[in-house]
Structure formats: C-alpha cells, structure tokens
Amino acid sequence: MNWILRANLKRRKARLALTIGGIAIGVATLFALLSFSAGIATALERELDSLGAHIIVLPVGCPYSLTLSLMQGADTIEYIDEASLAEFRAVDNVHIAAPAVVGRAKVNGTLTPVYGTDIQTALLKNWELDSFEGAVVGSKAAADLKLSAGDTINVSLYAPVTIPVVKVLPVTGGRDDTFVFLPLAIAQKVLALEGKVSAVLVRTSDVSRVSETRSTLGHMLGVQAVPPSEVFDTLVGILATVRQTMILIAGIAIAVGVFTTMNTMIMSVQERRRDIGLLRAVGATRREVFRLFLYESVVVSAVGGLVGLAVGYVATLLLPRASGLGLEALPQYSPAFIGICLVVAVAVGAIAALYPAMMAARVEPIRALREL
Amino acid sequence: MIVELKNVSKEYGRNGTRFVAVRDVDFRVSSGDFVSIVGPSGSGKSSLLHLVGCLDRPTAGSVLVDGQPTDKLSDTELSRVRRDRLGFVFQQFYLNDAMTALQNVLLPLELARVKGRVEMARAALADVGLCGKESNYPSQLSGGEQQRCAIARALVNSPEILLADEPTGSLDSASGKSVLELMECLHTTRGLALVIVTHDPAVAARAHQHIAIHDGRVQ
What we know:
Oligomer: heterodimer
Radius of gyration of chain B: 17 Å
Number of strands of chain B: 10
Helix content of chain B: 25-40%
Shape of chain B: globular
Strand content of chain A: 15-25%
Order of helices and strands of chain A: HHEHEHEEHEHEEEHEEHEHHHHH
Distance between the termini of chain A: 26 Å
Structural class of chain B: alpha/beta
Number of strands of chain A: 11
C-alpha cells in the first residue's frame, strides 16, 4: 500500500504541503503551550523554594499578588510596619525572620530591581556573609552592570546612595540573579519607604510546628501569614485556568487542521473518482478503498505532527523567556508532550478522513468510470 | 467459469425518468468463448458488459457465476469475483497517471496481496510487449502501449474471462490491430474467454459468437 500512497500524494505536492502546514501549526501551538506551562510551573516552584522560607508574612491584601511582586522585585502598595519585625522574631518557633523591601532603582544609572534586607536573609539563603554592610549583587545583575566585589555603586531613586559591593552571588537560575541586595535602611531610603517592609520571610526552628507558628503570626495586627506551598498551589491553579484557555486556543487551531485536512481529502476523493472506480473494477472492496483514504490522511497528519513538533520546539527556543506570571520560565520538554502531540495529529487525520473515506467507499465503479 | 444472464434487465434513473439500458437479456459466456457485442451508440452494449463483469447489478432477472446467483453475493464477494476471475479493458485505458506502467499493473496484485507480485507484474508487461517500459509513466507511452499496459493489468491476476469495452476505440488502426491480435493470441494460447464490445465490424468479425443489441434488446 505504501507505494500507492506515495504515488497519490506526489500528485498534488503544493496541496500536500499546505495540509501538512495546517496540522503542523495546531501541533506546534499545542507543543509550545505544554512545554511553557510545565516550564512556568517549575519556575514558580523554584522561585518559591529560593525564598528559603517556611512562612511568608505579608501585609493585608491579596497574598498571591504580593508574593509575586516580592519574587519579581515589583513595587507594592501595601507594607508592613518595620517595628513589627521585633514582634515576629519574638514568636515561639521563629528561627529567622528576614525583612524584605523591594522596588526598582537606578544602579549606576540603570533601572534595576533592588531588594532591601538584613543579615537574616544571608542566613536564610546561605550566603556565607558575616555582616551585611554593603551591596550583594546577583550574578546576572553583576554581569549586566559589569560589577565585581570591591566596586562601588551609585544607587538612586528618591535619594542617592553610594555603597560598595561586598559580594557577587553565584548563579542560582532564579530571580535572585537579577537583584541588587542592599542593607534594609539604605533600600528604604532610596525607595522612600523608611520604616516599611514589603514582606518578612520566616524560617521556623521546628518544621513540624509550622502551622501553629503560621497561626500565631497570622493573628497579629495588619499582617497575614502564608506558607509558600499554599501560594504555589493557588498560583498553579490560576495557571491551570490560563492553560485551559490556551488549550482551547490550541484546540481551535487543531480544529482548523481537521477541517483543512477534511477539505483536502474531499477534494482528493472528487478528483480521483475515476481512479477509485478503476480500483473497484479491478477488485478493491469498499473497505479497502475506505482504508486507503484513511491511511493516506493519517500518514499526512502524522507527518504534519512531526513537522509541528519541530516547529513547536524551535518556537519555544525563540519565544521571549519572560512569560507566565512575570517569571522567567524556560520551556520544559517531556516525552509525554511528544506523545500527546503525535496522538492528536494522528487523531486529526483519522477524524478528518472519516467522511471523505466513506464518500470514496460509496463510489459506484461504473458511474465513476462513465463520468469521463 | 460460466457467467450466465437470465432474463436480465437494467434500468437507470435520469432526471426523474427511467431509462431501460438492457431488456430481458439471456446470455451465457464460458471459458474459451470469444464473443463480440455490437450495436449502435446507446444501445446498451456497455451496460450488458458491466452486468456480465459483475460491475453492476441487474434491476430484474439474475446473473449467475458458476451457477450461483450474484444477488446473493455481498459487495465484498462480488469484488473478489472481479479481482480473482475477471479482467477489464476499457476504451480510455484508465491508467493512473501518477504510477509507472509497472505500478499500474501491480495494482490488482497489491489488492490481492499476492506474493512475488513485482515479478508477476513484470512478466505481464513482457507478455504484452512492454518489456523495458516498466518505469515509464502513462504520459511516456503511446496510445497502443497504454492499452497494452491496461491489458497487462487485466491479465496479471490470471482471470478466466477478459471483458473489453471498445478496446481499440481510442487507437489508430495500426495500434488497434496490434492490440486486437494480442488479445486474440491470449485467447488462443491461454484459453482466456473474451467478450468484446465494439462498433467496428472488423473487430466483431474475429469473434466466434456475435450478439447484436438494439435499444437494450438482443436481436
């Protein structure tokens, strides 16, 4: 059957290429979507892990958007009074309570995310610092700003500050790479947020008592306490909703592929009525004619699926990295995604071929041969 | 093999009106026969051939293959009869333009999934004098060669009856004569039954049995 298929397919090369293209677009969209969705979920988990906290204490407001702002280094409108920090540290089972004030400031004239904190963050993130007297620079920020330990930087927004760089952090692969970490008071001065912090990251002494500690912190005035796992679950839930919408869009692209293929196959059946009539005359059964067209469509769709996978892969490499909740997400590939895409492509071919193949099987040999 | 038509009629519907192509025909063809069917255009010659070849079903009467009524056979069983026991040659050749001569001849064998089919197809092409033309596409063959290729396709499954509908109708006289001689030779050497529909009295004259048809009735 293979050579019959090849002979038929090479008759209309341009139409074949367009059909393959139609299926490839749908499959490429689906593959890119699946890869990016997985990548965003991983990036989110990585960012939350990099906080190093068991509990995040936030001002009253939406805890998820506040956590995202904290991870992205974006300004927020709600803050915690810095004076509360001592109260948090006094809570039973709180081992570390590291303040964070985030925003964007000009570092040597370049707008850069800055993160004000104290030595407790160094303990939380294992920076191996004895004191936090100067700027600690993330690896990417250091590369972009051409900084190394011992340099001096000018930080300015509402107030100018000159401060030495005491450490350049190793690459973490997360948002920490993009931050310039400053002593809390200096960051507050630059950002005009004296006496305020965006969040407090808490690590407990006894992990088994996290929920109890969370409850205590959460009952304190003007703040809320959330574990990163809860933030992760909720944000992944939001992502899932977004992903469902995207899958619907990919579904539309795939449905277009079905109709394109069906249209091509119907045209093919109409153009090949004489050949079908001859096939029937020399002994092909209706089932064999049906199978021939079904097979043809499935092969074309499978090729479209493979082309779509290649296009989707290249697209994920070329598309901008910053995506999904503002996090820098690298696409994540899985054999399961390849399997899903190929199954979808083959299903497209099979579904699209059903009606045309039935049309072909119903062709009466004599009528078809008499048409010309 | 014996194909027998008993009181067979065939009607077609055209724009709400009925058209009787074949009326109350009794006819029989057995292995080794050479029959010509002659008559003017529209007289029902081709319709009769299609009924003999199990390409069409009668609206009245019955067609029997080796004594078995074909109206009892399923579409698949009728397809098997055509594939394994009958061969068809048409005026327009009906070769697939996208396939080489060899592939066109291979087609029935491919459907039957016969072992050693490429060798069989080559041998069939050699039998009709197309040795060396296996890789040619129909557009690279003359009219006579195309009809020879169509005959090879009809013969490759070793049918018992070859049914030809105006086989020389699209050919010049020299090619037509050559094709006819080939068919006669196959009839003589292989004992192949031949049923030929023709307008040409010269072609009809070569047959041993003649059927004249007019307005669907055998005269």
